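re: ur question from yesterday

yeah so i grabbed the chain u mentioned. its 191 aa long if i counted rite. heres the sequnce exactly as i have it in my notes:
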Amino acid sequence: MIGEPFIQAVPVLQLIENAGFEAYFVGGSVRDHILGREISDVDIATSALPEELKQIFPKTNDVGIEHGTILVHHKGGHYEITTFRTEQDYSDFRRPDKVSFIRSLKEDLQRRDFTMNAIAMTEEGEMVDLFAGKEAIRLKEITTVGDAADRFQEDALRMMRGIRFVSTLGFSLEIKTKQAIETYGHLLEHI
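ran it thru and got these structure tokens back, copy pasting raw so excuse formatting
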């Protein structure tokens, strides 16, 4: 069963899907739903491009359109919707130099920081968990998606996020994730 913030956003997912695109709840709201934590807002990822979303929703704001994110206003609610994307080259150790919009949920989830944040959820509450995020949550373990060294060299802020999750969720760092933070912690000077 999905909670109220998701229920309110279901019509947004349905409008996107009715237009022929995929749409899912993603990120921290899905993680917090699994943990039984309070959810204040939901994020949505979709195969629709920002221009296609603007065809579906008459009221939008370009809050991060260069990264595929727009704010959709729908029936009194405000929803950040981001197009599935891949990211390449992080010359400043924080933001990708190049973002490419894609139509693949798997590739979008693959670019995320931690497995617990790489879970998508359908409007019916079905989980798409391609990287064992639910298992990491069950183990109370913070594990990167893919190679930890790669994730932290791309975006050094991910290390700080990992440590924040240790303190806010009471989780521990998976051993390779911990070792990569120890190895690449110096990159935080770029943040």
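noticed a couple things. The radius of gyration is 17 Å. also The longest strand covers residues 77-83.
anyway ttyl
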